[in-house]
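Handout, tutorial session.
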Amino acid sequence: MSGDAAPTVHLIVGNVGAGKSTYARALAAQKRAHVFANDPWFAELYQPDLQGSDYAWTLERTQRIERVMIAEAKALLALGLDVIFDIGFFERSQRDRVRGAFDAGVVVTHFLDVDADERWRRVEERNAEKGETYSMTVDRQMFDFCETIFEAPKGAEYEAAVLSGGEGVSR
């Protein structure tokens, strides 16, 4: 927790390659917060069992991870710590579900709005380098599929979000 502020839940929203994991890590260092990142959990627990590309199968398992993360996040909030969810948030319904799991006023949405060409460049670089934020290879087919399912924040959700181009921490 930073200063005397109440502990906060930070939702990091952006499409593939927007820089969510990098942003989450920078925010965690700034806030002394714990990051819950879906990709490493999924890669370790379920990726070895995935055969082909089955979105429904993947979604069911990521929602299981989400439920465990929410329970753990509540325990950390009770200890006075900020938590950061770096779990994709491709669909508005997921963001609403996670927001609804916490008390009103403790959730801040960070929206990383980055152009698709730049995001694909970053994905190719991450695939090649296999650095700190690499969990699994994202091929062009997966990238393009994510383009079709991502629901960017709109209206009141957008207006309330902390906006970033995916570089560093905005506020």
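The second record follows below. Compare its token runs with those of the first.
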Amino acid sequence: MREQLERFLTELAAQRRVSPHTLAAYRRDITRVLDRAAGAPGAPVGTSAWTTELLVAAQRALWNGTPRRSPATVARALATWRSFSRFCVRRGVIATDPSAGLPFPKLPKRLPRTLPAAELAAALDRIAGDEQAPRDRALLELAYSSGLRLSELVGLNHGDLDRRAHVVRVRGKGRKERIVPIGDAALASLDRYLASLPAPSPGGAAPEPRADAPLFPGRSGRSESQGHPARPARAGRLAGRTVQRVVRRRLAAVASGLGVTPHALRHSFASHLLDRGADLRAIQELLGHASLATTQVYTHVSRSRLRKAYTQAHPRA
């Protein structure tokens, strides 16, 4: 079964263009079950061991383990086991899918976390005064202006940016490309950031960067991350964790001390567009969502805001 796991992951990477992060999660979820079946990490597991009883025990261990896993984590693991089981059935490795009858946990409905527009704009305008301010503001302005995922933001190249057209080419999930607009404020921040970069030699002018050079390189051009789905680690990109620290540091006040992540900027991008009358289909295209159902969560955010505004303002609410 461990050999089948490697074939399964290879197929996901080659045919479905699954990202390395997703592949790593799939490997962890399935390896955990195989180790349980074998009784030791890495030990061989026969095909007959992949049973419903094994998966039920693995699911129970997630619920009752320390720390207790969330319903979302359990649901993700079950989806992974089911995908792997179906792969093995297609290949004739096992006769039936042992995960077919396992129930998915009920997931709580969570609305996306958004930041108030006025406070967010003020916080972005306050970023100044230290050595990293130009880079940090460019990162946050671009993420908010174009609704980028964290991996899309750190994966940008110089050649992806078209200043004249005010757009940027983005490589999203499944390596799908899309073109999204950039606002004037984000472009101005990018120009200030690029102008602040040191010249390669004292007194020398910085050469025009290569089109495939990272827009946001790591320290001294070295890679700070474990690589990017579409590019090798040698490209020297800024680490996603660095961006997370920048967001927490620069936007803590806006989040009212509740914590904030880079994805909150993407949520805010979509919600603020919808609040100001943007078409839901257009927002879907800008976010790179494959399904409109994924984008529709933002309509619930706007409805909740309307309800709150009504309750606070109407004299007989």
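Points raised in discussion: The radius of gyration is 23 Å.
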